[in-house]
Amino acid sequence: MATDHTEAGTGPNPGDRGTARPVVRYGEPVLHRACAPVERYDDALAGLVEDMFASMYAANGVGLAANQIGVDARVFVLDCEDADGERTVAAVVNPVLILPPPPRELAVDDEGCLSVPGAFTETPRSATAAVEGFDPAGNPIRIEGTGTLARCLQHECDHLDGTVYVDRLPAKTRKRMLADAGLR
Ligand SMILES: [Zn+2]
Predict the structure, then answer these.
(1) Which positions carry the signal peptide feature in this UniProt record (predicted)?
(2) Which of 73, 76, 129, 130 has a CA between 20 and 30 Å from the CA of residue 88?
(3) CATH of the domain at 78
């Protein structure tokens, strides 16, 4: 996910050992199909996660899914804040998104995506969200979020199912945004 503001990190970050790879744009088939579950928690996965952090930071993103660098694997990374300004930095493997039962509170806020560069649009999302999955070593993890973090969890899980956030917007809005981004 992208935001229209960036903040400088402090200290060393994950991704320092990784290589930033190009982010694929909306329209590339790898972004529009569900990703494959990760089967092995090995060095290759650890290397992928490092490259994903490096790619996300290089692009000033707050979240990145593996298929955004062309890799068919259910992994995302994020570095963003919740509604209280508390920062979460995490890599989640084989995530499962958990939303509150309806009727759920919606938050409408600007959302953007590194795969649709430069475009931001108000997008309704559940105001809270949780994800359960595994860290790159295979340990179970759970992340609960509000604010930007909740939005990011939903945005990245969407990516791994082949949905880009603009796919959730009215067709007219989506076409204009893709045209503005020079993609269609
Ligand atoms: Zn995105």
Answers:
(1) none
(2) 73
(3) 3.90.45.10
Say if 16 falls within a structural domain.
Answer: no
Spell out a b/e string for 115-129, using b for 16 or more CB atoms within 10 Å of the CB, else e: bbbebebebebbbbb
Per-residue pLDDT band for 118 (boundaries 50, 70, 90) equals: confident
The closest of 18, 31, 8 to 136, measured between CA atoms, is 18
Q: What is the length of the chain?
A: 184
Q: Which residues are catalytic?
A: 156
Q: Is the pTM of this model over 0.85?
A: yes
Strand partners of residue 2? 61, 112
Which tokens in the block code for residue 121? 């649009």
Is residue 7 in some structural domain?
no
> What's the domain count of the chain?
1
The rounded Å distance from CA 127 to ligand 1 centre is 18
Q: What is the pLDDT of residue 10?
A: 53
Q: What does the DSSP 8-state code read for residue 61?
A: B
In a domain, 9, yes or no: no
Q: Where in the sequence is the domain holding 129, given as residue range(s)?
A: 29-181
The three-point CA angle 124-110-64 to 5° equals 95
Residue ranges of the annotated binding site for Fe cation are: 113, 155, 159
